[in-house]
Amino acid sequence: MFSRNNNTKENYSLEQKQNSCAYNYIFYHSKVSPKLQGNGLGIAKIHPSMINENYIDIDSELKGIGSCNFIEPQYKVQYNPNHIKVLDLYEKNKAQPLNTSIYYQNERPFYT
């Protein structure tokens, strides 16, 4: 029995093409972008691709994984955050200023 050599340039380029086609199928870029709830209503989870496009590179740099990258040399990662659209569910009232009390230093406090 013979086994074929999988470490050829042709097999590598074919596997890279399959990976890019699968990536384009999974992450369909023409979809509608969702909006987050506004007015302080938070969400439980948010996908990292909504915050930044190169979240994998940032995570790899923080964990020190980029030293094992044999395809491209390690480079300095730029953090470019995406603008997340917010939809306000209700209109907030403006904050009322508090009545501040005036204390004079030359007066004695009144104890009961």
Describe the protein.
This protein is mainly alpha-helical and 112 residues long. The protein has one domain (9-87). Helices cover 28% and strands 4% of the residues. It has helices at residues 9-26, 48-51, 55-63, and strands spanning 36-37, 86-87. A two-stranded parallel sheet has the order 1-2. The longest helix is centred in the first third of the chain and has 18 residues, at 9-26. The model has no long low-confidence stretch (mean pLDDT 78).
What is this structure's SSE topology?
Elements: H1 9-26, E1 36-37, H2 48-51, H3 55-63, E2 86-87
Parallel strand pairs: 1-2
Overall mean confidence score, pLDDT: 78
Question: Unreliable runs, pLDDT <50, ≥5 residues?
Answer: none
By DSSP, the count of extended strands is 2
Oligomeric organization of the protein chains: single chain
Query: Into how many domains do the coordinates divide?
Result: 1
Q: Helical residue percent?
A: 25-40%
How is the largest sheet built, in terms of strand order?
1-2
Query: Beta fraction of the residues?
Result: under 5%
* Overall 3D form: elongated
Largest sheet: 2 strands, parallel
The ordered H/E elements are HEHHE
Using the CA coordinates, give the radius of gyration.
28 Å
End-to-end distance: 101 Å
Number of helices: 3
* Class derived from helix and strand content: mainly alpha
